[in-house]
Design a protein that fits this description.
Elements (H helix, E strand, L loop, with lengths): L4 E4 L15 H12 L3 E5 L18 E4 L4 E4 L2 E5 L4 H13 L5
Parallel strand pairs: 1-2, 2-3
Antiparallel strand pairs: 3-4, 4-5
Length: 102
Amino acid sequence: MERKALFFDVDGTLFSEITRTVPESAVRAVQKARSLGHVVFINSGRVYCMLDFLNKLVETDGFLCGCGTRILVRGRTEYAYTIPHERGKEIKKSLVKYRMDG
């Protein structure tokens, strides 16, 4: 069998907003995939500080967070990108100018 990388979203996919947990069936599925040699990642637009609680609920191989701006593999940051401060200020000005929320 060929080893695969599996990516799961959080909201309504791996994590239930209703029960505020990962269903046991999902935990078992992730465990089975990993036992077969596949690697499992959580892939979310959320930033990592909004996702790290999942480490206590389900064991995965890593996270792709913040729309790809941070990649963690087995607890180690492999890639991180932040918007430069000056660019952030420009974006904020545009949001205010066009009355947008951000």
